[in-house]
Amino acid sequence: MFSDKKEKRIAAEPGSAQNRINEGTKLKGDITSTGFFRIDGIVEGNVKTPSKVVLGKTGVIIGTLTCENADIEGKFEGNLQVSGTLSLRSTAVIEGDVTVGKLAVEPGATINASCVMQDGKPKNTTVNQSPSENTKTHPFDRQQRLKKAAVGTDLDD
Length: 157
Fold this sequence. Notes:
By secondary structure, the protein is of the alpha/beta class. It has a domain at 18-117. 17% of the residues lie in helices and 45% in strands. It contains three helices and eleven strands. Strands 1, 2, 3, 4, 5, 6, 7, 8, 9, 10 and 11 form an eleven-stranded parallel beta sheet that branches. The longest helix has 15 residues, at 142-156. The protein is elongated and about 80 Å long. The protein starts with a helix and ends with a helix.
């Protein structure tokens, strides 16, 4: 009479489960998942997920981490690419290259890395434009109005 179909669909939904690598576990190789990760063990390789990654105090990643958000308490060496927020706890140790959208650092965290912050928008790479072409006039720009007023008084003389 009553069906359990709704419960089965919710449990089978991709990205809803947590992937966990416990302390004492060491993985070598690339990991790709749609769900989020909690890593307390050691991963040597590339980790890629469109979700969140939590690297616990005993967790170590050596390689590349690509994710949306990351919360790091352990050690990371390599290339870190976080499109959203990277939160570094006081026990975090980061070495390598970091590309983030937003960065939150607690006192005590160690970062020996080059860090680039990106907002997801492409940078303006116009090189051959003159400064007058590069600046747009705005109708409420006071400097523009003052220049026009000065030109108008010079003509009256």
